[in-house]
Amino acid sequence: MSKKTMGIHHITAIVGHPQENVDFYAGLLGLRLVKQTVNFDDPGTYHLYFGDEGGKPGTIITFFPWAGARQGKIGGGQVGVTSYVVPMGALEFWGNRLEKFKVPFNKTVRFGEQFLQFDDPHGLHLELVEREEGEINHWNFSGVTPEVAIKGFGGATLLSTQPNRTADLLENVMGLDLVGKDEDFARYRSSANIGNVIDLKLTSNSRGRMGVGTVHHIAWRAIDDQDQLDWQKYVAANGYGVTPVQDRNYFNAIYFREHGEILFEIATDPPGFAHDESQETMGEKLMLPAQYESQRERLTRGLIPFTVRELD
Q1: What angle do CA 173, 177, 181 make, to 5 degrees?
Q2: Tell me: the pLDDT tens digits for 263-272?
Q3: Which CATH class name applies to 8-302?
Q4: Are 225 and 252 in contact (CB under 8 A)?
Q5: Which of 65, 32, 69 is nearest to 46 (CA)?
């Protein structure tokens, strides 16, 4: 038996104040807040999801905002950089937009592609790259039109404490194809047209420290529940300790930590984000899973209010 993931389902990170988080990802980057709910394992904290207009797999970045929490350290055992893909010719717009909002950025070239690299307000490393592949994002918000809007993930750069073992996992368990090496990076590709490129840093990295400004985990796509159960058996058969299936309301999830210490999730594409509110109104109000609905008033009192707003 062998399997191949289609690519990234979502990436989840820890950040600081929720208003700063929403202002950056919705107001500046123009992403849609497709769901506001709570961390199912810590319901006193938001879980915010941003993506394209439909919240499709491969476009979703999610956040646990903990205002005042300890700053983390990006390092081994983490996603080091989250990559977003934009339409061809859009990098000039994004360079001007970052300058307008006084976000410092650098330009770099990797595997023959130019990237704009910058940090969000809480220290997460991000980058933008132009590619033809990927569907146009028709969400139009805060001056970011579909012609230049972020389509979704270009991919991610992984920092491993044991790069050789992570490389083996990516190719021989997750089923990604090795497409080449460029200096200190190996590039892997999946079959999807979004969230499909993984760059692995080939030198070992000292272990990072979880906290604000770090990625908590990267999630890979499973077609449906049966495909996920097949992944669960397959991952376990390859020597990894994998969790039981966890119901996350918008997808089911299993987790395992690979030998380079990066936390991996495998998440189902369905049911998606519109099953408990309409496609048109997704993200407009706090949605709670059934087990927390009776606690809505108490939980809401403990959450910091925020507003999705356009930035001038």
Answers
A1: 115
A2: 999 999 999 9
A3: alpha beta
A4: yes
A5: 65
